Amino acid sequence: MAIKAVLFDFNGVIINDEPIHEQLLEQLLLEENLRPKPGDFRKLCLGRSDRASIADLFASQGRFLSEDYLSRLIERKNRAYRNQLENQEKLPIYIGVADLIYKLRVAGMKLAIVSGAIGSEIKLVLKRAELAQYFPVVVAGDDLAASKPEPDGYLLAVERLNREYPDLNLRENECLAIEDSPAGIEAAKRAGMPVVGVANTYPYHIVQRLANWAVDYLWDLEIERLDRVYGGFLAASTVRE
After folding, report:
1. Digit-coded pLDDT (tens) for 156-168
2. The domains spanning 5-15+92-230 and 18-86 adopt the same CATH topology
3. Of the candidates 117, 50, 126, 48, which has an alpha carbon nearest to the alpha carbon of residue 91?
4. pLDDT tens digits, residue range 218-228?
5. Highest CATH level, class, for 18-86
6. What is the mean pLDDT of residues 142-148?
7. Region class of 232: left (phi > 0), else alpha (psi between -120 and 50), else beta
8. Helix, strand, coil: what percent of the chain each, to 5?
9. Fewer CB within 10 A of the terminal residue: the chain, N end or C end?
């Protein structure tokens, strides 16, 4: 069945901000009189929502948070993240993102973002990077009760794309996901979608083992090869709105 939509993860696929998140989470632990442990960010946080990440980081050190206190910690981290980005003259958007988006739109693909990041963070980055207009559907961590590797975000993106484009009749297996983490790859697969893993965060051999197809960089995603593997990418020569 031909692909109709491409669903992007956000952190680690569109923006190289995972070092910022690691720093802010470590800062949050220190402010709460806890000591960050080496390896915990990669093990507990990569590919997952702030809610799941912070809850598990604290639980791993014997601190179990009420929902109210957890929400306040998430808000503190969100403010710190926005302050960091606002002080950066240039955002760390991955090379190849804008070019890939252009090629996918020329191919007639519908685009969405499925991320564990806070919605306000995603919107801030997309606006500053002049990419917001290309993603009419954004599923963020605060839209969901469950974090990746649960498939809920990807399933919700399909629902929202069908509402955005009533004639699309999109099914899960007509979507291609682009992910960088084991949790994200598992989430998309559990939703019934093929997954391209990009080795931005984990080594190539890891994403290759988990995803349907792996690339070192986004610019390695050639439309002709995507069409040969999945179909649907060369169905149009001009952008279909």
Report:
1. 999 999 999 999 9
2. no
3. 126
4. 999 989 989 99
5. mainly alpha
6. 91
7. left
8. 50, 10, 40
9. C
Band of pLDDT at residue 145, cut at 50, 70 and 90:
confident
Query: Is a pLDDT exceeding 60 seen at residue 239?
Result: no
Burial 78-106 (b: 16+ CB within 10 A, else e): bebbeeebeeeeeeebbeebbebbeebbb
Q: In which band, very low, low, confident or very high, does the pLDDT at 148 lie, cut at 50, 70 and 90?
A: very high
- In 10 A of CB 163, how many CB atoms? 10
Long-range contacts, 128-136 (Cβ 8 Å, 24+): 128/85, 128/91, 129/14, 129/15, 129/91, 129/93, 129/97, 131/14, 131/97, 131/98, 131/101, 134/101, 134/105, 135/8, 135/111, 136/111, 136/112, 136/164
How far CA 209 is from CA of 9, 46, 124, 177, 216, in Å, comes to 18, 18, 33, 16, 13
Domain range list for the chain: 5-15+92-230, 18-86
* CATH class of segment(s) 5-15+92-230: alpha beta
Identify residue 118 by its one-letter amino acid code: I
Sheet hosting strand 137-139, strand order edge to edge: 137-139, 110-114, 5-8, 175-179, 195-198, 213-215
Query: What pTM was estimated for this model as a whole?
Result: 0.89
Please give the DSSP secondary-structure letter assigned to residue 218.
G
Q: How confident is the model at residue 210 (pLDDT cuts 50, 70, 90)?
A: very high
Tokens of 197: 């893993």
How confident is the model over 85-95, as pLDDT tens digits? 988 889 999 99
